[in-house]
Design goal:
The protein is mostly helical and 457 residues long. The protein has 19 helices and no strands. The protein is globular and about 70 Å long.
Length: 457
């Protein structure tokens, strides 16, 4: 006698085909971008091993060796080692910032699957080459700087690509919670990168780079084999967007797909930049800049990333220097910052869903790493989203480059001064969103007034 079909299988069969592919896309893009951050994190863990207090770590000098830096890794055994670490961070982040401004343009004009998978494999290669310097006994600064520059350039393929792919499948909508969970890929990648790098940091720090490099390269192959760029490619229905007739409907004033008021949060079509003959086609760089709010979010993200990347690259070294933990212990403790990022991102998604106010949520919570949703001027154009995302993240990456550089220059004067710099950047990030926050708050009042008038009528 045959047993009945397993309950789990019955549940899976009951799910619509579209849901399967959308779920697969979310999971894959989550893993892909988590692997990017997984490969970026090791440098922050290994810094304290490249230059360490040998005697404080209980490492006795060999016979005939009097130098207190005998166990450091040249060229980072000098007194200016913090400036050298800052140079390494800047090599990656400046290249990343420059590359990001052009990456989105390439991303929306090239096959997304090949573009993303190629970038992941190359990222794995350059990450591994940094670690191989340990086994090849390389002690010249230019090697590490060049590797960081090339790695920064190829890693720009990640963010515009995954955002565009998710946009192709999900479009716009009241999806803050989903995106809040999905956006935790950054923190998950940082946590995994810290834990993996910590395993070998004190024994063979080269493996702290090689293993993450292999992981992201493998994920690049997975991307090539399984990523589906468009719902139409597998006969799934594309995401639904508002039409012009829906925007003109008076009732749409009270109910939109993102939970906000159309007449307070949507511009007239005359304000939206037009690309001649390009409806739902790739948008130009200047056209993306003309979209209201892009410049403000970009500058806001500059200061926000200045803060987050300073923590990303310098927090473990700070813990080692101040609390005198081992490199592995400092790396493990630094993951708590990213655990907070996961919880905060999900909470931000919930709040933005409930209020329909992305900028206000960002300003209040200071989680400004990636503004959610798209502007109505894009009319659901996921291809244009690649350029807009690249502009915002590229500008933010300038701040990401400045933060670690300033930390390297300021930290010799005292770590408290570094935190004063971070506090200032947070305040500036909030101020840059003030106009958008005011507009959203004005929209709340307008929605409330019109709703009351409608009911009373």
């Amino acid at each position: 006698m045959r047993s009945s079909l397993a309950p789990g299988i019955r549940l899976l069969r009951a799910l619509p085909r579209d849901s399967w592919y959308r779920g697969l896309t979310l999971v894959l893009t989550f893993l892909f971008y988590a692997s990017f951050h997984l490969s970026r994190k090791p440098i922050s863990i290994v810094k304290s091993e490249l230059h360490t207090n040998c005697s404080a770590q209980g490492r006795g000098a060999p016979n005939g060796t009097n130098s207190s830096t005998w166990c450091d890794w040249a060229p980072f055994d000098q007194d200016n080692y913090k400036e050298l670490f800052g140079a390494l961070d800047n090599a990656f982040l400046v290249a990343y910032a420059i590359g990001m401004f052009i990456s989105g343009i390439f991303g929306e004009r090239l096959p997304l699957r090949y573009y993303l998978s190629g970038g992941m494999v190359l990222s794995g290669l350059f990450t591994s080459l940094f670690g191989l310097a340990y086994f090849w006994k390389i002690h010249v600064l230019w090697y590490y700087v060049l590797i960081q520059i090339f790695n920064g350039l190829v890693q720009t393929t990640g963010w515009p690509s995954v955002v565009t792919c998710v946009g192709n499948w999900f479009g716009k909508g009241k999806r803050g919670l989903i995106m809040g969970i999905w956006n935790s890929h950054t923190s998950v990648g940082n946590i995994l990168g810290s834990l993996i790098a910590g395993v070998w940091v004190s024994s063979a720090w080269g493996l702290s780079f090689i293993v993450p490099g292999i992981i992201i390269a493998i994920m690049g192959i997975v991307c090539l084999l399984f990523l589906v760029e468009y719902p139409e490619d597998v006969d799934c229905s594309p995401p639904q967007h508002h039409t012009e007739s829906e925007e003109k409907d008076p009732e749409a004033t009270f109910s939109t797909d993102d939970g906000s008021c159309i007449r307070e949060n949507t511009l007239d079509s005359s304000e939206c930049p037009k690309e001649p003959g390009e409806e739902l086609e790739a948008i130009s760089f200047l056209g993306a800049l003309r979209i209201p709010g892009v410049v403000e979010f970009s500058l806001c993200l500059l200061f926000a990333k200045l803060v987050s990347y300073t923590f990303l690259y310098w927090l473990p070294l700070y813990i080692v220097n101040v609390a005198h933990f081992s490199a592995k212990e400092a790396g493990d403790m630094s993951t708590l910052f990213d655990v907070g990022g996961i919880l905060g991102g999900i909470l931000a998604g919930l709040v933005s869903d409930y209020t329909g106010s992305r900028a206000t949520t960002c300003c209040v919570m200071l989680i400004l790493a990636a503004p959610m949703g798209t502007h109505e001027c894009l009319k659901g154009n996921a291809k244009a989203l690649s350029t807009v995302t690249a502009i915002i993240d590229g500008t933010g990456s300038i701040g990401a480059a400045l933060g670690p550089l300033l930390a390297g220059l300021i930290s010799p004067t005292g770590w408290n001064n570094v935190f004063y710099m971070l506090i200032t950047a947070d305040i500036l990030a909030c101020l840059l969103l003030s106009r958008v926050v005011y507009k959203e708050m004005k929209g709340w009042c307008g929605c409330y007034t019109r709703k009351r008038g409608f009911k009373e009528f």
